[in-house]
Amino acid sequence: MIRNIFLCAVAVCVSAVTASAQPRPVWDSNGWQMLGEREVHGHGRENADRITVGRYSGRFSKLTVVVLDADLEMIDMSIQFGRGEPFHPAVAQIFREGTRTRVIDFPGDERVIRYIDFRYRNLPGEGHARVQVWGKEGPSEPPPPPPPPPAPAWDSRGWMMLGEREVHGHGREEADRIEVGRREGRFQKLTVVVMDADLEIFDFMVKFEHGEPFHPGISQIFREGTRTRVIDLPSYGDGRTIRWIEFKYRNLPGEGHARVQVWAR
User: Fold this and answer.
1) Closest CA to 72 of 113, 129, 117
2) Could you tell me if 135 and 63 are in contact, meaning their C-beta atoms sit under 8 angstroms apart?
3) pTM (2 decimals)?
4) pLDDT by residue (tens digit) across 152-187?
């Protein structure tokens, strides 16, 4: 009897959470024609793919690419028309799940599309993205999506900032070091705050005054305005003196220059 009451209560809670969840915005395809779809395989590995269109799909003046199921890094896109040179719209950047590229206007009049080539990749830990290509014959286009809400501010109360670096170079891996030293005291916890742009961290190493370097496992994509988990430092009871902290990281294409702050307590 008690077990049945407990299961019913759980079911009611799940139903309430589901009912209160906000629906994800849906891509409004009204007036557009889908030319093809591909699923992107391989985490962090560059993929090349082609969507063949052909004359049967008509003549188009506009194009957009919709990203579903996961975030995606678009490296390059090439559109081959029935005649003339390939067209390379500038769309190299990170696209969030459920978003799309801008509306791409073709050069000249309406064009017959033969095929569309892509170079792209899934982002680590993001699943398999689906890429849909949509074409449009008319001159009108849907309104742009609303801007995302601002990221919550980092609450630094009780923390001390040990240093900050700006990451230069789009898509290029960089190594950097923040010197700390004895003057900053002894610490038990650490966190890294990412500001101004998204960032991919490959490796992160903490060198103490004594002992071996410490490598917390934080190799992943960090969104602008977010931070790593709170990292507990291996200690001898009263914390450790940090000599320096080394990073391997990179900006993501089209995302600007990330600032990386290291905080300890």
Assistant:
1) 129
2) yes
3) 0.44
4) 666 788 888 888 888 876 667 788 888 886 556 678
